[in-house]
What does this fold into?
Amino acid sequence: MNLLKQYTWKNLYSEYQPLMNSSNDQIFAYEALMRSSPKINPLAMIEYARHQEVLYELDTICIQNAITEYPFSYYHSHYLFINIFPSTIVHDDFKNFIGSLLKKFPHIRERIVFEVNEDVNEVHIWTREDFSRRILELKSYGFRIAFDDMPIARLSFERMYTLTPDFVKLDHTKSKDLSTSLEKQQLISLFLEFTDEKMRLVLEGIETEQDLLTAKQLGVPLLQGYYISKPKRLEF
It folds into this structure.
């Protein structure tokens, strides 16, 4: 099935899921998530785009959608997290793309967090010199960096140490049944030892009150998940 014939880039839009500050239950930021109409699984769209060698085009369109559909007033009070692939960051046209974004949307400076996707197909890019250089360039432009879906492994801590992201995100596999899993509680506590106010930990996938309370008790600063709020479109 030719997905690009059925679902053009114009059918894409963003929904937003909040990240909650665990200390006061206030919304800290929103993460933009790719959606399409008619509905199609975002992972299927991504895999097809990669197969057709148009993943950069898909990724940059989603970035632009996330920025334009995010209410202007929200930028003053809530950061905007936007997913991005490592292959997009090292793409030859990316620097010009970022320049055009800053020219068109000057208000996004210091308010956007690029959430670098831990895609298994692109794990080799993380060790490239141009990837590290582009991360530093993004920071110099006023963007913040988050590492998404970090595996609990030695390599993760090495990346955190060398590239110093502003946020580190753990996925739903670390939060599911957190309240009853001593092992998961210990793993999250380990990450908390390596993070601080300059590199804040985000725990995704909070789906029950018990897991929310446990995450708060552990001291996880930022929380995200369906129990807090499902993704939705935002009103201007």
